[in-house]
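We modelled each protein-ligand pair independently. The example shown here corresponds to the fe (ii) ion entry; the chain sequence is given first, followed by the ligand as SMILES.
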Amino acid sequence: MATVTESTTISPEMANRLFLRGASPEAEFGDFRDDLQRDGFVVVKSAVPRERADAYAEAMYKWLEDFNLGYKRDDPSTIHEDHLPVINEKGMVFGYGVAHEKFTWDIRQEPGVVGAFEKVYATEDLVVSFDSVNFSFPNRKDLKANKPWAHQDQDPEKPGFRCLQGLVNLLPNGPDDGGLIVCKGAHLLSEEFHKEFINEKRIWAWTKEWYGFTDAGMKWLADKGCKWEKVCMEPGDLVLWDSRTPHYNVSPAETSTQPRFATYTCYLPVANLTQEELKGKKEAFEGVEFTTHWPNLPGFGGVPFTRLDGKPCPHNFKVPRSGKPQLTERGYKLTGIPYIKA
Ligand SMILES: [Fe+2]
């Protein structure tokens, strides 16, 4: 593992303009940041070069096949939990150390991915989340339905632009294929919305940094003229969204034959983390733990999950199959560890 030899300075003044003044609907940057401010999301094309995106997809297919449970990428009849690791109805994997697999970390360290966040936050001093991976297959009859679960990944009591989320798409992803759906422009209505809905009975959430839209909330968005848009992407594209932007993921339509592979990539400026939070990142990294998309929050060992027979997955393992992460110097800085003061 690389180490950082030179001293690293935290510069709170580097906090980006988006953070300082909140999102503005006015174009100002002449690049993807204008779309992000206006729409609450944007696709950064080819953030990962196609050749490497294809190699990551290959590694992800191999990861599934190497459980040796019978899954074969060319045989759709093997798309069943009997032949796969546990993947929930939303396509998420919360075990097997997948948050620290080699392909997950390699994607996090991709210059075009980190670079997009550097541009938005106007700093190279970033910390990355140890978030999960998505494998969504069409026509999975063995899983319960993935009902719409429109939400924001941000505490309504902490308004303003606070966090930029992202995911890297690894396979062709068209309108009928599963993927991210966003409520275009609704990030700019978030504060108004939460003032009106301050007394509503909330949908339960295990973290304050999550808000679920009720039917009344969905109607409010529709009455405001907000439209939901399925994000379509090519392999290697990165989608970025403001954590206030209402979103969820949809399963592939019945007409789709295309799996969806994606990894979640979210970064915050180091300056936004306390020393305690950075120490939490160290513990999470050394313990090969997951985090949510919030890069500042402590790690957890994964979400308890069982196979269809109700028993814990006997194939689960904490340390990734590829071993503990071997990072570049840039990757190691992204853990936040080098920014811990002695
Ligand atoms: Fe989310």
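Confidence is low (pLDDT under 50) at residues 1-15.
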